[in-house]
Each structure stands twice: as structure tokens, then as C-alpha cells.
Amino acid sequence: MTRDQIRQVILDILAKIAPDEDLSNLKDDVPFSEQMELDSMDFLDIVMELRKGYRIQIPEEDYQHLTTMESTVTYLEPLLKDVESPAKPAG
Amino acid sequence: MNIQPARGVDGSPVPGAERGNGASGGSSRRVFRTGMNVAGSLSERPYDVVIIGAGLSGLAAGIRLAYFEKRVAILERHTTIGGLNSFYRLRGRNHDVGLHAVTNYAPPGTKKGPLSKLLRQLRLSWDDFGLCPQIESSVEFGDVVLTFDNAFERLRCQIADVFPDQADRFDRLVRRIREHDELSLSNRYQSARAIVGEYLTDPLLIDMLFCPLMFYGSPTAEDMDFSQFVIMFKAVFCEGFARPENGIRPILKTLVRKYRSLGGELHLRAGVRRLVHDGDRLTAIELDDGRRVRAHRVLSSAGAVETLRLCDPPLTAPPGVQPGEISFVETIFCLDCLPSELGHHRTIVFYNDAARFRYARPAEPVDLDSGIICSPNNFQYDRPLPEGRLRITALADPEFWLTAPEPEYREQKQRWCERLVEAALRHVPDFRSHVVDVDMFTPRTITRFTGHVNGCVYGAPNKIRDGRTPLENLFLCGTDQGFLGIIGAMLSGITIANLHVLGQSQRSVPLSPA
Is B125 on the interface with A (CB under 8 A)? Predict the structure, then answer.
């Protein structure tokens, strides 16, 4: 997947977890938690959705990379480079 | 007076017609077809998770686990789902068991709060529960009345009007309440009366605030744990009441449909008789009919003491783990008119006519000093419900109702039903000539259908927040874990599923990544 495709994967997951949030103006360099109502349960769900949809395990010590969209995409890029982009949102 | 028709429409005695016949359940009217599963279809292969009890907490936990691809089976002893929040059909009418109102109401699109969190976690939408907000409710202590609705400002103004010298103090108390993290799993017991007493000085106002919160969720007599108080304060006063047009059924149906669509198994008439363990881990689950099931982890909503009693060899309950003794009787009156046509417009009335409000196991079979009058009709529906209903609920002595021999039990039900109505008439227009059907349930009914000791609807006094038990793969969810109410019960299942199954490989997830 390309960076844009990974970004779309994350957006799809966020839309699923937080359907009442408007994600159209999400800034890539600002922490998710400053732009949306996300609590610890929701962060667990981002990790779980990535595992469910793409079979990637994210160890706890790497959660720090999931702060902003930019850092998340950078972290996932090597993990998803050989994975096909989903035809439709995963899940 | 006409509240006690000698015979119901189908000739069965009223009240006193107990629902179904308990464990065997063969002639029960409470069959829920969507949830049925063919007997014998339990797998030999160990499940990832077995959940004991198909109430709100078990179903919500099941959805979370099935959604994240765990192999899950829910085992329910009864012939239908719902547990403490179930439903039944009697003489052609649908009734709810527990639900007066869903607390924690939030309007669609709200991003914060328990209801929004719940919908997100279960991947449900706002329309799935079809919640309609209340009209208005009240706390009535003799002639002193506080009304409230789902806008918190209304209660604030009422308090400023009725208790002017307490207004500033109340605002400071509310700030303390809003700042408290009531859901933290590490909270320890603090006396709510002691903390509230640091702010408010009028004992009448203090009792009037505690009254609805205790009635709708306190497992302890006279006082509450401060975190429980805060949960209930936010749920009742800050967020407020709502109800689906058809009561608890659409909520349960939504949960079961979701759970089954994700591949979750639901087994009714599958009571657990024994939890076999080796001292550290649970090794097998034995059903009433002798079948055995294995699972890597078990979540039990049966109650703390109730679950430990299933363990074989027997386990001693950790200190402080004991059954509660707060229970209720409830009378349900079906009317030939709407309550509003009699001049009764309030959704829920919490009343007390004694000098002080006592929330405790009463010395009499039923506490006639205080109670709750709920009208399922008085919510903001698009169209009125077809029939008028009033439900009157009061504290009851579990021992009396659980031990009364059968003929006396029925007589006493009738007698206390009449006395309860007479007491409540100080707070509701006399509706007795409009009654077309009556049903009543007691602590005995609750124990019979849910297995909860003493007919306790709010569980044990000491909650086990993290759900842990002496066995490393057995966890508690539901009333004894400590999140209360309809929304709280579902959040309890979700929290324990996240903490002990889904989060297991992830460990604790930081509040937000550093």
C-alpha cells in the first residue's frame, strides 16, 4: 500500500470507531486526541481493527507511534508495504 | 376498589400468576425466537470465551468478542434473554421486567458520555435503540417537590428556588462530581454521604438527591460508594431518562441480532451447574443437563457469590464478597385510559412521606413510606402507546418474600399490592377504577428468573471493579462488577471483555499514546 492508501485505511477505521466525528478536516500533524473524542477504549480499537483487517500485531511499546495521522502512516508503511489496498473498507 | 380483579382475562388469578415455572421453563410465555439455538450444538473444541448469562452485560461482551473474531458461546439457563432486564407476555400484553427508563440519555450525535461510548464500542448507530426522551420527572418528599428533565439546568434552577441557601453549595458539589473519574477501575470505597455532606447542609435536599440515585442503582443501604453516587448522579440528573417505544425488547433484539451476525453462539436452557477448576484455572464448565464445555476464559454475569458457589472444589469468597439484600416489589397496572387523561404527566415520580428517607431492607414485607411511580406512557414518543400503564415499585424484605409458603405468598402479594397503591396515591391521581389488569413481582420472582441471591437487582454491596476472581481465567461482569443501569450493564460487559480478553495481548492501553 502507498502512504495515501494507508491513510485511507486509518480514516476508514476512525470512521467506524467514531461515526459521529467529522473527519474531513483532520490534520495529519496534530494528535488524534486533540481533534477527536478518543479514549483508551477507542485506541485499543484502532489496534484491534488493524489486527483484524490486516493481521498486523502492534506491540504495546509501539503505541507511541500512533499519535498523529502522519506518525501512524510512517509507522505502518513498512508493515503494510506488501499488502494490497482493500477494495472496500476492511472489517 | 377495582385494582384486584378476581380473574384475569384468560381466567388465571391476578395478581399472583407467577411467570413460567422457573428452571424447567417448559410452559414459559417468555420465549424469544430470534435468540433460540438448537440444544446440543455446543462445540467439543474449547471456546475462546464462554459467557455465563445472556443479560445486557453478557450480550455486550459477546458482541465485542465476536466482532474481534473470538469463538464465543453465551450460556443462559432461562428460556429467554435479558436477565435482570428481561420481558414477558402475560394475558396478551407485553411487559418489561426491570426497565423503567434507560438512564444516561444523550441526544443523537453526542460524542461524549456512556451512551456514545457504548454505541461506538458495539458498532451500533443511534437509531438502533430508538430512545425517546422523558417528559419530566420529580422527587416528592411530602409537599416539597423538585422536578427535573434531561436538561440539567432545570434541576439547578429548581434547587435555587426551593433551597435558596443551598444553591451555591450545590454548584460546588456539582463541580466535584464532574471532576471525579467515577469509571476508574482502581477507585476505592468512599462514603457518598460524607462527601455530599461537605457541600450541602440541608438534610432534606441531601435525601431528595440521594433518593432517585439509590432507587435506581444502590446495592447498599443508607449510603453509597461515592463513585457509584457519581455514576448515578450523571446518569439520572446530568444525562437523564429515555425509553424505546417498545421497552427493553428492541434493545435486546438489537444486541442479539448483532451478536449472531458476528458468529456468536447463544444457548438458551443451558444453565451452568458447576465450574470445575484445579485451584488456579477453570478447566471445565458443566451444564445442568451434564454436558461439558471447555473455554480458555469465562466471563460470568451470574453475580460474585453466585459464581463462586458454582466452583468445584468450593472456593471461599474473598473478604467483603457477600450477597446484597436490597430488593423490590413492583406492581404493574394496565389501565383503560392513558395516565395523562387522569392528569398524570410525569415520567417518573420518586416519593417519600416519612420524616427521613430510609433506603434499606424494610422491617415490613414492603416499605410503604417511599417508592417509585413510573409511567411508560410519559415519554416523548411520535405517537401514544396503545395502552395506559403505571408501575409502582418499593423496597421489599427479601427474606419474607423468599420464604413465605405458596398460598400465603399469593395472599400477601395481593394484600401488599393494595397497600402499596394506597400509599402511592399521595403522588398520583386515583387510577384504581381504570385498572384492567395487574401483575406484581417480588424478590422471589427475581431470584427465580435470574438466580440472583435475595432477588438483588443491584447486586452485592462491594463491587469487584476489575472483574477478577480467585481463578486466573474466570472474570465477573454485570451488576457485581459495578457499572449500573441499562447502559452501565452493557459497558460492564464491554469493559471486562476489553480488559481481560481483547486487551490481554496488548496489555494496558495508555489513555492516549504519549
Answer: yes
Alpha-carbon gap, residue B435 to B418, rounded angstroms: 12
Task: Decide if A40 and B112 are in contact by the 8 Å CB cutoff.
Answer: no
Helix (H) or strand (E) holding B307: helix B304-310
**pTM of the shown model:** 0.89
Chain A residues closer than 8 Å to B117 by CB: 39, 41
Q: Point out the residue among B69, B125, B512 whose CB comes nearest to the CB of A38.
A: B512
Are B512 and A60 within 8 A, CB to CB? Answer: no
Neighboring chain B residues of A45 at a CB cutoff of 8 Å: 120-121
Q: C-alpha distances in angstroms, B61 versus B66, B116, B222, B496?
A: 9, 17, 32, 7
CA B462 – CA B485 distance, rounded (Å) = 17
**Is the pLDDT assigned to residue B375 strictly greater than 80?**
yes
CATH topology of domain B42-98+248-322+459-504: FAD/NAD(P)-binding domain (3.50.50)
From CA B332, how far away is CA B393, in angstroms rounded?
9
Cell numbers that stand for B32 in this block: 424469544
Return residue ranges of chain B for CATH 3.50.50.60. Answer: 42-98+248-322+459-504
Determine the topology of domain B1-24+324-458 in CATH. Polyamine Oxidase; Chain A, domain 2 (3.90.660)
pLDDT in tens, B208-247: 999 999 999 999 999 999 999 999 999 999 999 999 999 9
What is the per-residue burial (b if ≥16 Cβ within 10 Å, else e) of B161-172?
A: ebbeebeebbee
